[in-house]
Amino acid sequence: MKLTRIRRHLSAVAAVVLTAALAACGTADSDPQSGSAAQAAPGAGVAAVQGDFDRWIKGTSVAPPVADSPKAAAGKHIWIISCGQSNASCARGTKGAQDAAAAIGWEATVYDTKGNLSTAGDGIRQAIAGRADGIFMYFIDCSYAQQPLAEAKAAGIPVVQAEGIDCNIADPKSPSLFTHSVSYEEGPLLTWLESFGASLAALLVTETNGRGNILFVADNVAIGTQNVIKGYKREMAKCPDCTSEVVEYSFDQLTAGVSQQVQQKLLQKPDTDAVGVAYDGILQGGVSVAVLQSIRGGRHLVLAAGEGSAPTMDLVRKGSVVGGSGLDNEWEGWSGVDNLNRIMQGAPGVGSGIGIQLYDKEHNVPASGPYVATVDYQAAYRKAWAR
């Protein structure tokens, strides 16, 4: 699968443990740049990534393109197929679609796969039987429900999705079964994910003064994560005085092997200055434990995170995590509803306006809760639908 599959493992228990554990080591690592890399003169990589870092800390998100958005279609009923409401990212994206449906005046039914994405087809078939006017899917690849999606297409029910891989992308011999996929300022999902990975590299280069010895942890299966790695490597190549190794793991290692794997790497590489992750679920799936043990052993490590879930942002506010690259999942849900409204009225789908936004303790961190977009996209959609 891809990036979003692993986010299902971001459980409330792991989040609490992570927050407590790393917060406890905050005084031991109160200055993330106190290691050897930070004490040396800046490496050439700092200047090389500075333009990218500045652009991404400012953010590339723009207001959603609503100038030609049709007024709200009346009396519609949509189904929202969630990747699992116990997962923070899934729940946020679903909430965005629910709130958007309420704002546009539609009825919405949520089908919770509970993390078992193979049941998504059941939700689609229930939506068809319930004469849904449209379907929004979140964090679910086409391959999990190819036949039900074909049935929805045959029934004339539009399916808009966010953060899923269409069947024709995973397999060029298969048909495209999503009516529209939420897209980003950098392009479609996989292109945006490359920029996401590149932004994490720019953050790590900057935080290690362009001389870091860096470990970047990511899975070795997901299509989306491989694009994150691709972008990360491209940006990291701009830092001649940095060394970087991608530590890859399989899905079954997320909760039962990542910690040991990273601990082993840190023992093998005593000069490591920083650890980054492709998304927050990895941090909470074991990397935090390995980093905590190293800090308790007297090492100074920069720790960078992913999209900015609530537990991660708590750690940024405490100074245990230097930052990451933010994603407001609710915006994807609002874009999904806007595009359903367009498609129902014969208009083509449009982009979301979502771009890349780095955050650190001084930038783009709210007083509480997860990362939130700096663009008031909800006001833009509400105004467009009411006219």
Describe what this molecule looks like in 3D.
The chain is α/β, with parallel strands linked by helices and 387 residues long. The protein contains 15 helices and 11 strands. Helix content is 45%, strand content 13%. Helix 10 (223-236) links the parallel strand 6 and strand 7 (243-249). Helix 5 packs across helix 14.
Unreliable parts:
1-17, 25-30
* Order of strands, widest sheet: 2-1-3-4-5
Beta-strand content estimate: 5-15%
Distance between the termini: 40 Å
Share of helix, binned? 40-55%
**Succession of helices and strands:** HHHHEHEHEHEHEHEHEHEHEHEHEH
Computed CA radius of gyration, to the nearest angstrom: 21 Å
Which structural class matches the secondary elements? alpha/beta
Summed over residues and divided by their number, the pLDDT gives a mean of: 89
**Major β-sheet annotation:** 5 strands, parallel
Number of helices: 15
- Please give the number of β-strands: 11
Outline, from the CA principal axes? Answer: globular
Notable features of this structure?
5-stranded parallel beta sheet; 4-stranded parallel beta sheet; alpha/beta; disordered N terminus; 11 strands; single chain; 387 residues
How would the blueprint of this fold be written?
Elements: H1 3-7, H2 12-24, H3 36-39, H4 44-58, E1 77-82, H5 88-104, E2 107-112, H6 120-129, E3 134-138, H7 146-154, E4 159-162, H8 167-170, E5 180-181, H9 189-207, E6 213-219, H10 223-236, E7 243-249, H11 258-268, E8 274-277, H12 280-296, E9 302-304, H13 310-318, E10 323-325, H14 329-344, E11 358-360, H15 377-386
Parallel strand pairs: 1-2, 1-3, 3-4, 4-5, 6-7, 6-8, 8-9
Antiparallel strand pairs: 10-11
